Amino acid sequence: MTTVATAAILQALPDPVLLIDGKKTIVSANDAAKNLLGAQIEGRSLVLALRQPEVLDAVNDVLGGEDHRSAHISLMTSVRRSFDIQVTTLEAAAQSNARAVLIMHDITAARNAEQMRADFVTNVSHELRSPLSSLVGFIETLRGPARDDESARDRFLDLMDSESKRMARLIDDLLSLSRVEANEHILPDGQVELRALLADVTDALSMRANGRSLTISFARDGASVFAPGDWDELTEVFHNLIDNAVKYCPEHTKVRVEIDEIERIPEIGLPGVVIAIANEGDGIPAEHLPRLTERFYRVDKGRSRTMGGTGLGLAIVKHIVNRHRGQLTVDSALGQGTVFKVFLPSVRDVAESDDLSQY
Ligand SMILES: Nc1ncnc2c1ncn2[C@@H]1O[C@H](COP(=O)(O)OP(=O)(O)O)[C@@H](O)[C@H]1O
Ligand SMILES: [Mg+2]
Question: Cα(242) to centroid of ligand 2, in Å?
Fold first, then answer.
């Protein structure tokens, strides 16, 4: 292959590539390498361009006669990035003094995904373990010290009942989450009348609201509002959001549920429907807002737990709204309250439904 062709190939590679001579000077770098390490790196010493002992060891070994070495490094750019480094010997080429080629493959995304998976398993195990430990403890107490104590037995059985229900809720939410994630790329094919759906959800939650002396206000008699969607999944969305509003607002206040048709959904640009769920209360501090839809993220873990939460509700909501090509927003003012909004397109973007591969 000609030198020109080799240079063009190096240039076309998406991964940073450096050619290095016998004195560890960078004789050539492609654009990806210049973007990462600086535009002026050609002619500089590798020792200065990439201050990474593992990389220098690998290069020294290859220049010393080994065919191939690899290394892993982390670089602090605007974010921390991980790279898999491959250093390979180059046959002495006539017109070039390059002796080794160094290829940097960015594995940050794979590392992050692996970390998320590991964190998720840790979180699930932890969340299941704590009610399970309580159950084991109650069983031991009932077999031992509380064996003949009738009132203690009833109290412990009540606690065991609520702990086992907590485990069941967690498992239901985990299954729900994995089902929704698996379907996220497939558009729902039904048509849903949202006013009736919201009336059903508010009815289902009215007991819980009464228990906290709250009212849920919703204009159930208004005009019908249709949107393409899946009835069960949208029920799950609004059940979670209204349930949160009911749980996290002070007693004797009002939860407002409103639905409106709008010309253009912000960011999406299509006509659609917006459903707002507003509650009074302390509000959510701004630093928590971007993380609320992460699995198991809770502003106040103790409070969520006493209210019977799993920390998965908003993660489920987010995935279902994504599947409907909608948008979820949250606004919260400290000392005043919180408004969650779900935007759902009422028509399908034709170009988009032809090409779902982008999702
Ligand atoms: N309407 C709301 N007002 C205040 N905080 C809320 C509201 N909705 C959700 N949150 C916060 O977001 C967290 C995550 O919500 P969610 O995923 O539904 O989990 P949980 O099972 O705890 O309800 C909650 O623990 C709570 O801290
Ligand atoms: Mg919830």
Answer: 9
Ligand 1 atom at minimum distance from 277 CA: 1
Please compute, for residue 56, the number of CA atoms within 13 A of its CA located in the half-sphere on the CB side.
12
Domains and CATH numbers, the chain: 3-106 (3.30.450.20), 109-183 (1.10.287.130), 187-358 (3.30.565.10)
Quick one: 59 exposed, middle or buried, by C-beta within 10 A (0-12, 13-18, 19+)?
buried
What's the rounded Cα separation, in Å, for the pair 189 and 207?
A: 32
Residue-level pLDDT at 101 = 95
**Measured between alpha carbons, how far is 10 from 30 in angstroms, rounded to an integer?**
6
How far is the C-alpha of 199 from the C-alpha of 201, rounded, in Å? Answer: 6
Are 297 and 330 in contact by the 8 Å Cβ rule? The answer is no
How much distance in Å is there from the Cα of 312 to the middle of ligand 2? 7
Q: Is 311's C-beta closer than 6 angstroms to any atom of ligand 1?
A: yes
* Closest ligand to residue 337's CA: 1
42-80 confidence digits (pLDDT tens): 999 999 999 899 999 999 999 999 999 999 999 988 888
Q: The sheet that has 17-21: what strands, in order across it?
A: 26-29, 17-21, 98-106, 80-89, 68-76
Neighbours of ion ligand 2 (CB under 5 A): 244, 309, 313
Task: Name the helix (H) or strand (E) containing 259.
Answer: strand 254-262
Q: Residue of the nearest CA to atom 23 in ligand 1?
A: 309
Report pLDDT digits (tens) over 282-328. Answer: 999 999 999 999 999 999 988 888 888 899 999 999 999 999 999 99
Q: Where do we find the tokens 């670089």?
A: 75
Q: Hey, whose CA ends up nearest to atom 18 of ligand 1?
A: 313
Say if CB 213 and CB 172 are below 8 A apart. no
Pocket test for ligand 1, best of 291, 304, 307, 341 (most atoms within 8 A of CB): 304
The backbone torsions φ and ψ at residue 140, rounded to the nearest 5 degrees and listed phi first, read -60, -40
Q: How far apart are CA 242 and CA 317, in angstroms?
A: 11
